[in-house]
Structure formats: structure tokens, C-alpha cells
What does this fold into?
Amino acid sequence: MDTEGCARLRAELLEAPTTQAPVYIQGTEGTIHETVRKTTSMHPSDETFNRVHQELLTQTAALSQHFNLNLIDCEPPQFLRYEKGDFFVRHQDGNPRQDDHDHLRVRRISIVVFLNDYAAEPHPNCYSGGVLNFYDQTQEFGLQGETGLLVAFPSDTFHEVFPVTSGERFTIITWFR
It folds into this structure.
């Protein structure tokens, strides 16, 4: 998605209805756990939702080839806004060994599309903090987003979103299976 398209989508999302973003934790009831994930889900028009979903689906073949997997589709996208103080603790998006939530068992590739830029200092239409941090057995890596950047990674990768310190961080997320 280009810079202008991201700006138009952010403008629409700011006017869209919102809900608290869910999180699924094995062995717990409910899906709102603000000590684990604090962010807002935004719900654009059906037309925008379907257009974005179709654009994401066009990535299936390239992702299948890159990750050497037979991916068939992706979950409906989520549109997220992280405001000052919002975060998501270290977690995995998918795990074939978990038992409580079927959709988490079949996720293979996670996608994050950034709709605005990271800035070290407060700047209009940018966010500070909110780094997407990845972990593996030997190292960790922080990613500062930029408008239109699509990030794909195996869904069993441990990662987190550090608290946003200024501005608002807008992303689209989905999972290929």
C-alpha cells in the first residue's frame, strides 16, 4: 500500500467504530486482558475491509514461496490503533501445540502492515515507542515501522509491541494458514 493509500485508510479508520482488541489465552475465559494487550480494533466500511482483505490475499503465492509453505488463505484482517501507553506483551500468534483455540493452531505466517511512520521524537502522523520486537533463542530484534511496510514472519515467533510513548500507531494484521 502506498503512502497516500495509507493516509486515506488512517483517515477512514479515525471515523470508524471501535472495540477493544481481543487476545486469546489458553486456559482463560474472555478475550479482553488489558494487562496482556491494550489496543483498539477499528472497523472500517465493508468495502474497505473487503478491498484490504483481497489485497492481502494476493500475497499468498509469494509468501508460500518465500517461507516454503503451502499457504491457502488468510484470516480476515484486523485494523489496530495503539495510543499512548498501549502495548502487547511478548507472545506467539500461532502455536500448533495449544489446545483451546483452533484458529491459533493453524496460523503459519503472521503479517503486520504499518500505516504510519515511527519517529524518535513526537511528529505529526507518526508514533514514538511502539517498536515491534522479535525474539529467538539467541537474540532479539526491534523493528520501527514505516508507512506501507509489510512484515511477514512465522506465527510461532515470539514478539511484542512495546508501549507507544507518543502519537498513534496504526497497523493492519492478519495470519496466513
